[in-house]
Amino acid sequence: MGASKQLLKDIAKLKMHKFRELENKFIIEGDKLVTEAINSIPKSISQIFVTPESKIAAKKREFFLVVEISAAELKKISTQQSPQHSLAIIESNFLPTKETVNKVVLACDDIQDPGNFGTIIRTADWFGIRSIIASKNTVDVFNQKVIQASMGSIFRVRVEYVDLKSWLVNSKRRILGAFLDGCSIFDYQVESDSVVLIGNEGKGISPEICKLIHDKITIPPIGKAESLNAAVATGIILAELTKKESHG
Fold first, then answer.
1. Which of 45, 75, 76, 81 is the most buried (most CB within 10 A)?
2. End-to-end CA distance of the chain
3. Are residues 163 and 70 in the same domain?
4. Strands 45-50 and 86-91
5. Diameter over CA atoms, the chain
């Protein structure tokens, strides 16, 4: 049982963005998420590490390189204060290379909070959105907090980092921006393929991107809250924009 000190050091480096990019690998943690990866992207699993307490079924482990390690060794490579008994190394090129076509595509302009971004990815998955376009300053999709908040949805939703302004200029889709003022989302009708823009948590959509927007949309308040969390707003907007597509 156990892993070499050098192997543990190499895995621990994947906690940092620059090493994730260099190695094209990232970490996922916990029996639930590792099992999700086994079921969803088995060919992209490089290695699995488990402690004796792991509940990953023996049959799930049969076709993978599984190393049993101690709780102390897991703690050295984990990003969490209380590691969850298993950890896997994933090759980061597991998603389709081409954008999946949806009537509605989601775009994120400099979302910074990992929890928000992970929840946005999970929400997009719920509503069948297969592609998210992200500005280059948006938080890294393979940040551990993003992965945990996505609850496995990163395995199904492609996140593509682009020069957002250039991408939007070249897109043939109608561009919708979420603002505090604008047309009520409850009255808005999707007439063509569209991009829904969600702005930065504090600053909103950047001024240069605002100039490209065709339609401003808003979620009209009933109470007195100043604003909505970006992920919550995304959920409400997608629920409205996809309901005709989902339910006929």
1. 45
2. 55
3. no
4. antiparallel
5. 61
CA distance 134 to 132: 6
DSSP state of 25: E
The phi-psi region of residue 43 (left if phi > 0; otherwise alpha if psi is between -120 and 50; otherwise beta) is: alpha
Q: How many domains does the chain have?
A: 2
Helical H segments across the chain, by residue range: 5-12, 17-23, 31-40, 58-61, 71-77, 114-126, 144-150, 164-170, 207-210, 230-247
* 201 burial type by CB count under 10 A (0-12 exposed, 13-18 middle, 19+ buried): middle
Q: What angle do CA 209, 216, 202 make, to 5 degrees?
A: 60
* Domain-embedded: residue 210: yes
Task: Pick the closest to residue 200 from 179, 182, 185 (CA basis).
Answer: 179
pLDDT tens by residue, 120-167: 999 999 999 988 999 999 999 999 999 999 999 999 999 999 999 999
Per-position b or e across 129-163, b if 16+ CB within 10 A of its CB: bbbbbbbeebbbbbbbbbbbbbebbbbbbbbebee
The pLDDT tens digits of the residues spanning 5-24 come to 899 999 999 999 999 999 99
